[in-house]
Structure formats: structure tokens, C-alpha cells
Amino acid sequence: MKISIAIVEDEKNYNNALKKIIDYQQDMKVVAQYFDGSDALRNLPDVSPDVVMMDIQLQDMLGIEIIEQLKKELPDTQFIMCTSFEDDENVFNSLKAGAMGYLVKGESMDKILSSIRDVYNGGAPMSFSIARKVLSHFERKLPEIKGFDELTEREKEILELLSQGLLYKEIAAKKFISIDTVKKHVGNIYRKLHVNNKVEAINKFNHFKN
After folding, report:
1. Which candidate, 78, 52, 57, places its Cα nearest to that of 10?
2. How far is the C-alpha of 98 from the C-alpha of 102, rounded, in Å?
3. Is-contact 148 187, C-beta < 8 A?
4. What string of DSSP letters covers 4-53?
């Protein structure tokens, strides 16, 4: 099974360059290309790709708005921002909306390809500068713990394994359950802890342990 990818990027040369490199890989395939936000918003639910490479500043809307509107409709689709914006507002609004990765344009194609594989397997790939920004933000502002007591023992076990850096498929193998079951548990964890992504969930878990 190839990883199915949609590209939402209004810069045609970059969009086509991404498609060419991705399609060259044996384990992934571009199933849709969109050059404006409204087209992506209208058609992505029918395509339901594994991964979406999303630009932030599209000509007709923000990529963040697309994620906010589609995340519930596409719970199994992972969104990676691929943009030239590195400011706090765009980074954190993207993560709050449900993006699981954030890459700065200019990253090598190798980094982009490994990020697609990473996010597909349950990772949260980020450019180095973005990861530092996220970590320093959480050091400044520790979130209050809500909902930890609501987690089942199995959900706590999965959260512990996520915090150790294990991918979904590794957790599935360790607990003798399917990847889909892991994803369902992770969705319940996010809902109970009132978080939108893995980084926030792990941060809350670590804060609780300490």
C-alpha cells in the first residue's frame, strides 16, 4: 500500500516539483494537486488522502482554515504545513488546528520525504527551528492538567509509549492491537486531555508525571 498524498500549494512550480519527487518514490503517490484553497476544501473529503502537504498563505484563504474545517471530516488524514512562515502565530495556530507537522520551505527533499513517512507512522515532523520554538513555548507556559483521570489504563499505557517516542505501528505491535485501534485510543486521549496534537498530549503527560 502506497502512502496517498495531496498537495495544496498555489505556487505551481513548487507544487509540481513536490509531485515529481514524491511520485518517484516506491512507497508513496500523489493522488491530488490543488492550486487554491477553495478547490482543496471542496475536493479533499472525497479524496481522503493519508497525508496533505499544506501551504499556509494561499491566494484565496489560509491553509490553517482548511485544516480547521476538514479535520473532523478527515480524522485519519495527517496534515503537514509546508510554508515560508516561521512566526509564532502561524506555527501555533497550525498545530492548534490539527497539523501534525510543520516544515519550512527550503528543507531538502529528503527531509520532506522522511517527514511524510514519519507523520504517516504517527510522528510529528518539524523543521529544527520550529521544533525549538515549540519546545521553548512549552517551557514558558505549562498547561494545566485536565482530563488525565478520565483516561483508561490502556489509554495511559499508550500515552506513556507515545511519550517514549514510539510510532503507532510500534505501539500496535507492542500491545498486540491494530494501528486503527491505536489511532482510536489516541483520538480519545486528545479529546479527554483537551489537546489537538501529540506534542500537547505528551507535554501534559510529562507535566502530570512531574
Report:
1. 57
2. 11
3. no
4. EEEEE-S-HHHHHHHHHHHHTSTTEEEEEEESSHHHHHHHHHHH--SEEE
Give the residues across from 6 on adjacent strands. 32, 52
Residue 205 has pLDDT above 90, yes or no: no
Helices (H), the chain: 12-23, 37-47, 63-70, 88-97, 109-120, 128-140, 153-163, 168-175, 179-193, 198-209
DSSP state of 101: E
Taking the whole predicted model, whether its pTM rises above 0.90 is answered as no
CB 168 within 8 A of CB 180: no
Residue 91 has pLDDT above 80, yes or no: yes
Distance (Å, whole) CA 208 – CA 73: 31
Return d(Cα 103, Cα 112) in angstroms, integer.
8
Does residue 146 surpass a pLDDT of 60? no
- State residue 210's pLDDT score: 58
